[in-house]
Amino acid sequence: MKELLRSTDPTIIAYASALLAGEGIEVFELDVHMSILDGSLGILPRRLMVRDADHFMANAVLRDLDIPTGLP
């Protein structure tokens, strides 16, 4: 699995997940329950992961819709 998106904004994560699901790309969200550690402040980013084979297409979908990935 490869990391596709990293963000502290849950709306971007949900939007990207819905778009990718519409394209038939399965995503897995990591660090969902980390808010317990940061006191629900939302300072720890969540990550979207995709299969290695889907990474290129998923990255193209996000790039075409100007969704920032938060990755270097």
TrEMBL record:
Pfam families: DUF2007 (PF09413)
InterPro entries reported in the protein's UniProt record: DUF2007, N-reg_PII-like_a/b
Ranges of residues in domain DUF2007: 1-65
Protein name: DUF2007 domain-containing protein
